[in-house]
Known about the structure:
- Helix 3 packs across helix 4 and helix 8 crosses helix 13.
- Strand 6 (161-164), helix 6 and strand 7 (184-186) form a beta-alpha-beta unit.
- It is built from 15 helices and 13 strands.
- The chain is α/β, with parallel strands linked by helices.
- A seven-stranded parallel sheet has the order 3-2-1-4-5-6-7, with helices on both faces.
- Residues 11-15, 194-198, 368-373 and 394-406 have low confidence and may be disordered.
Amino acid sequence: MTQESQTEDQTERAVTSPLHVLVVLPGLEMGGSEKATCRLLNAIDRKLIRMSVAVFKSSGACLRLVPEDVPVHILGPHSGLKRIRTVLRLARLVRRERVEVVYAVLDSANIVALFARLLGILPTPLLIGVRCNYRWGLGKGVRWRRVKRLLVRLLYPRADRILCVTDEALRVIAEDFGVPKNRCDVLGNVVPSVGRPSHPSDGADALGDWLSGAVPLFLAIGRLIEVKQFDKLLEAFQLVRNETAARLLIIGEGPDRPRLESLVHRLGLSDQCRLPGEILDPMPCMQRAASLVVTSRAEGFPNVVAEALACGLRVISFDWAEPVVRMIEATKLGEVVQRDNHEALASAMLRVLQVGPAFGEDGVNGPYLTNHSMGTEPGAYERVFVSVARAGVIRSRGPVRAFAER
């Protein structure tokens, strides 16, 4: 479909009625994909697209980020034999709410929607999202990874369109799993607009003088899990503290908290390092930090890096994650060092203190207006939704469709 025909179809939609798109998520916990999806929900043009959300469970900090005009439907628990019930409930919801396009975002949501398609009870156009490189992003445990690889290979080609968050994710899904490239698009996350109103900052308010004091602050954000390698960051920060006064803030929650807290104590950093848990909007921290430090071995679309660069915050990173490296190189706003080398990381952190903030005055980072490819405009998603709805799908009747329609 050409750009002109897409624009004409969007105009026709605006004149008649908005296209109804249902976004399917496992939940609305504090995660990068969940926050990015909520940002998309807020940014979509309501004259063109009417959004609604379906989740397996109703809890989650990101529920507060869902716009008031977007209804949230609960599909119920998703474990054991209850997965079958979730598949049927999704099909019934799509029919009852007259959904015109289904967009599943994360792996478990993808599989539920694709099983409904396999059974012939979801004839609505279906998009699924690939949020990471599947060579490393299919979870822990050899047996579970094998099962998920099989499900991806069997089910994903049944989607009408696959939205990959990076070029790397698209390359892997096509080469390793046999998904046709002509049904894949690369769409990054919608990055926050400069000057956007902040969401409630939650724990950021409790940090007090850590955000207002004169001591330089280094920032890291992510789940407290092994792949993020925050232990390497702590080792580097200890070397920085041997040279100058500084503080380190690691925002996030996860199973590695006890191990990291023990390491903080063992390195003698208890007064200079905090792990405050999850913070809904870390922007106040970014605006006061000297640098964002990324030590992760792998990233899908690095939301935190895009947000940091958007507000002019320098980023220091190991050379593990290709999307992070590309962003830093494109913006010239940071430094990439040798992977897992905590001494090189410490040296880069010391250098950034000498350079000072990229923009703004009084140590406050200002907005970084960039034309680099750090994210995607909402209009790109709108065009995909409209084109998929216009193309439609072949309606097939599966073995349980009659039961789902009762």
